[in-house]
Amino acid sequence: KTHKTKEKTKQKRLEEMTDTARPPPMSEIPPLVSASAALKMNSGGGGGGPDDVVAVAALIDELKSEDVRLRLNSISRLSTIAAALGPERTRNELVPFLVDMNDDDDECLMAVAEHIPSLVTSVGGDEFVHALLLPLESLSTVEETVVRQKAVEGLVKVGERCDRASAMEHFCPLVKRLATGEWFTARVSACGLFACALEKVSSNGNGGEEEKKMIAQLRSLFGQLCDDETPMVRRAAATNLGKVAEASVEDKQFINDEVLNWFGKLTADEQDSVRLLAVDDCVSLSKLVSEEERLKSIVPVALKFSSDTSWRVRYAVAQQIYELCEIIGADFAREDLFPAYENLLEDAEAEVRIAAAAKVSKFCALAGPERSRENIIPRVRELAKDASQHVRAALASVVMESAPTLGKEETVNQLLPIFLVLLKDEFPDVRLNVIGKLDQVNEVIGVDTLSKELLPAIKDLAEDRHWRVRLAIIEYIPILATQTGESSFLFSKEASTSDSENNSAEDVLNSLCLRWLADPVSSIRQAAGQNLQNLTALFGSAWAKEHVIPKLESLLQTEKNYLVRVTVASTLGMLAEKVDEGDITGTLFPIAKAAAADSVANVRFNIAKSLEKMAKSVSAGSAIRTEILEVLDGLKADADVDVQFYASEARNAF
Length: 654
Hints:
Layout: H1 2-17, H2 34-42, H3 50-62, H4 68-75, H5 78-85, H6 87-100, H7 106-115, H8 133-139, H9 145-161, H10 164-179, H11 184-191, H12 194-201, H13 209-226, H14 231-247, H15 252-267, H16 272-286, H17 291-306, H18 311-328, H19 330-333, H20 337-344, H21 350-357, H22 360-367, H23 369-383, H24 389-396, H25 403-423, H26 428-436, H27 438-445, H28 451-462, H29 467-484, E1 493-495, E2 505-507, H30 508-517, H31 522-539, H32 541-547, H33 549-558, H34 562-576, H35 581-595, H36 601-617, H37 623-636, H38 641-652
Helix pairs in contact: 1-6, 2-3, 4-7, 5-6, 6-8, 7-9, 8-9, 10-11, 10-12, 10-13, 11-14, 12-13, 12-14, 14-15, 14-16, 15-16, 15-17, 16-17, 16-18, 17-18, 17-20, 18-20, 18-21, 21-24, 22-23, 23-25, 24-26, 25-27, 26-28, 26-29, 29-31, 30-31, 31-32, 31-34, 33-34, 33-35, 34-35, 34-36, 35-36, 36-37, ...
């Protein structure tokens, strides 16, 4: 009977909203885009006509459609409907309709929760913003978690727009209703609203008796939720405890007496899902209490959690323990928290060791070289040989950042052996992470010490079977070259594997770059061309003329795979932007001119693009620019339409 009454009420409100102009039958409107398309077409003449009213009425009618897609389309245009109805009718008709909207599709409910906060202007501004609280309150009690979360976000946005009087009259009573709701879903949602409510009521300094009474009631209700019988509610309370404390930051007595008491209950909860959320509160509350309270109430909890039976709780501690150490200071942390962290590095669970390994360099900086050498580095040495490749990868990404803390001598004695172990790791990501942090060790001991070990690792990564690994090492080569200089091991000679008869020697860098230009993956070939451009910018035209350009010319003349020639053709244009005008005239342009007669159209139109870059890089009115434009004119008459197009584009640029 109640359901039928609700349906009749919704139907009546729907008819009231559409009584100004009934929409045409839905059968006459194309599905899906009916209302929105009609609105777009009919509003082209300035809007406000009868057709606009019909289109808006169609949008309203779609709110009741059985087709989910039509309902979603209409919900996304709620602001349009509200603008057509006006503020008063929006408050009196549209908002009540949304309150009674009992949609069975969670996607529609989430869309409503997402769009309601955007109706603040449509209901009449901040003065009437409280009208939007009721539909969001209804949505905050539904069973689906994502809908409730979106509704709570909307309630917070609306609550922030309320003034103090409106918060006292509308927002705080809503929070109280949810906090005392029969179903746990309402109480879970209420936990996310207390901070906003307390901030609104206690804002602007001194409040009257009513405000103080309301604050006391809200705090009491939140305390009850921290001790709720349902774990989901206690989890929500633990998540928002820090926010509630921050909203009452001026009331130190409340934080010391009440908040820390709730915190103690949550940290002793039998559910590990509640305890791990309380770990985050350790950091947030530490910022709000005195040093004495930190050492008395929070540090012991962190120590207890670091040896918790649940690995998820220990994982949360490993993520937060450094921030806690920063807050309480290194002097106090050395006695208790440092040993706890060192134990986490040896935890039985790989996930915990990963989180702890990611903090190694930060803890070394905080602990200082002596403690790091005695307590942290020995454990790091064991992690470098950990059975989990993910632990080793996490360690590799940060371990070299400890070099500045330890200094040159200790880095060579302590970190260098670990570095070499990780550099030879069978897992590519570990080796890649080590090389990515090479600048840290280079600043301390110089990269020449590592040359013999680094070169094989780079060569292996350059030929790794995973193309993303090859791409990463290509992008890192210019950085590595910047750190090491032109005289580095990258330019050492090796026997060429491509010319066994002559057994000629070529430097490692050129060898790698040529392999990448011929890589089967397009992204690698493009990155190889960009890599050569970056190296040319770093080492200058003379280096490119001696080491790069002759190889590119050879590839264009002898390479049978047209994809490689396409890459080389593009690379010529990239180099033209970095070399001197004389090198364009003497080397790059003659090579490009010869390649303009290539048998494959893709090569020719890439040459056209490169010629445009060459022409822009030389002096206006020079003889070489005239020659370039003549070649482009020839390509404009090419038999292939794509070549004609790109040649014309390049020619028209001048």
